[in-house]
Hints:
The protein is an alpha/beta fold. About 40% of the residues lie in helices and about 15% in strands.
Amino acid sequence: MRQFIQKIQHHVYLIGLIMSLFLVLLCEACGRGSLLLGLRFAVEHPFAFSFDVFIIFLTWSFAIFFKRRIFYYLIVITLWGAIGITNGVILGYRNTPFTFVDVQLAKTGLDVMNNYMSQVKIITTFLIIALIAAVLILLFFKVPPYEGKRSFKKNLLSMAIIIVCFTGCYQVGIKTGRLVERFADLNLSYKTYGVPYCFAVTLVDNGISKPLSYNQKTMKGIEKQIDTVEETEAKKKPNVIILQLESFFDVNHMKNLTFSENPLPYFNYLKENYTSGYFKVPTYGAGTINTEFEVLSQMNRDFFGAGEYPYKSLVQNKNKTFETVNYILKKQGYSTHAIHNNRATFYDRDFIYSHLGFDTFTSYEFMNDREPTPNGWVKDKILTKEIVKALDSTKKKDFIFTVSVQGHGEYPTDVTEFIEDPKITISGMEDEERANKLTYYVNEINEMDQFLKELTDTLSEYPEDVILAIYGDHLPSIGFSDEELENGSTFETEYVLWSNFDMEKKDEDIQAYQLVSRIFDRMGLQSGVMSRYHQYYERQKSKKGYINNMKLLEYDMLYGNSYILGQTNPFQVTDLQMGTLPLTISDVVKNDDGTITITGDEYTDFTDIYINGKRIDTEFIDEHTVKCQYDIQYGDEVQVVQGSKKHLRLQDGDIYYY
Length: 658
C-alpha cells in the first residue's frame, strides 16, 4: 500500500490529468442535471471543455512542490468538487449559477438558510462539511509524505512551461472567440464555457476596467454635454417613494397559461391609468441588490465583472461613497429613508446604506405585527404603516426607498404543504413541480397586489404630494425562458409611476438606471451628474455614445480621478439611524415581584434592556412596554437597545438613571 501511495505521489501530472477530466465532468453533470449532458458539453464545446480541464490541471500541478502530495490532491478535489456540487445545488434554488461573489455573500446566505432548507438538511450539510474537514486533517497526519527526490529547479521549469502553455491556450481561445473575457449572460456563459472557467472569471473579473479613451480631455467633453442640462432646483417637491417589489412581475404575460382569476387586478389597473412600461433589470431569479444599485446610483451594472455585486465589491470600503439619488435629493432639502421588511444585515444593508446617503433605515427588527408567509418571509402589508411613519417623521419632504420581501423564494414543489386551498390555481403547465411553484408564487403576489391597493389608497389621503414608483426587482426563480414570455425577455419586469396629484401618463420602456431621471423629469428637477446625463440623452434623437460615455462616467466616479466632480468626492458617509424614530424611555418602575417595567416608544420583540452595561433577559409587552427581572437600585443606568436574536446591536436608545 505504501508503495502504491508513493507511485500516486510520484506521477503528479498523469494523476492530475485523469482527476481533472473527472472533476470537469462532475462540475458539468451537477450544473446540467445529468452526466449525459455533461458529456454533451464536451462534444459540443471541445475547446472550452479542454480549457476547463487545463484550469483544474494547473491548480493540481502545484503538488510537485509539496511533500504531502496526497493531502494537496484531496484539497484540490474537495475545492473543485465543492464548486461543482454547490453550483448544482444553487441552480436548484435559483436561476443563476454559483459565482465567487456567492462566497463573499456567505454570511448573507447563512442568514436566510432557514427559508430555503429544513433544519435536518442544514444540520446534515454542516455535518458533512465537518466530516470532510476531519478526514482531511486525519489524512494529513496519517498518509506518508512523498519520499522521492524533488528538484526545485526542475519542478519550477515544468511549472513555468505549464503556465506559458496555459496562457497561450487562453489567448488562442479569446482571439478565436472560443472563450470570452466578459459575460453578457451569466447563465448562457456557464452552459457555453463550463463551470471551472466561468467561476474563475468571476474570481478575477471585478470592478470596471479602465476604458482606453479615459483621460481628462475626454471627461471634459462629456461634462460639456451634461452641462447643457442646466442644474436647477425642483419646480415641484413632492415626497418621493420608490417601492422595489421582490420577484414581482405580471404573470399574465406568460404564454399558454390560464389562471382561475387574475392574480394582479390592481397592478393591471395601475398600468392602464398611470405611466408604465417594461423595466429592464440586470439580473434574473436572484441578485436583488444589483437592481437596487442601478436604481439608486443611476449607473449601469453591466460594466462590472461577471456576477459581481457592487454592494459587496465596491461599497465594502469603509470610506467609499459615490453619487446616489439620496445625495441629490438632500441638496433639495429632503430627508432620506430606507425600509425593508427583512433583516438589517441582509446583504449588509445596515452598513451599505450609510454609504449611499440614507438618514434612517427601518428593518424588520424595528417593526411590530410582522406576519410571515408560509415559507417564512414577512408579508409586505406591514410596509404601509412604516412608509407613513417615515413621511410623518420629519417636517421636510421625504425620499423613501422601500424594499419588499414577500415574493421571495424558495417556492415549494408541493404547494399543498404550504397552502391547503390556494385561492388562485393555474392550468396549462405540464411540469407538476413548476406548476406547484408557480401556484404558490401567484397566491403570494396576489397578496402583494392587495398591499399595493392599500398603500395607494392610504397615500391618496395623505395631505402632501407623493410620487410613488413601483417595480419588480427581477423575475422569480421558477425557471422561465424567454420563449414563455410575451415580451421575450427574462430580464424585464414592469414599473408604474403613481401620484396622488395629476401627473401626465407617458408610457415608455426604461432601464432600471433610468428610473430616477424619469421621476426628476416629473419634478422639473435637473441635478446630479448621472441624472442630467440620462436627461441629456433622453432629449437627443441619436443615442450614439450613450453606453460608452456612461462607462467612462462610472469609471471616473467610482475608480478614476473623478474629473467630472472636479477631482473631489463631496459625498459623506451618513450617521445612519436604525429605525425611523429613536428608542426612548419615559419611565422605569420597580415592581413588587422583583421585576422592572420600562415604558417608552418604538419597542419591538428585538428590544433588549441593558443595566449598567449588561444585557438582561427582556420580555416584550408591546411597542411602549418591556420588562425584565432585576433588583434595580438607586443610580443604576438603564438603557434600551434594539438588537437581533444574535444580539447584534442595531441602535442604542435612551439611557435612564433610576
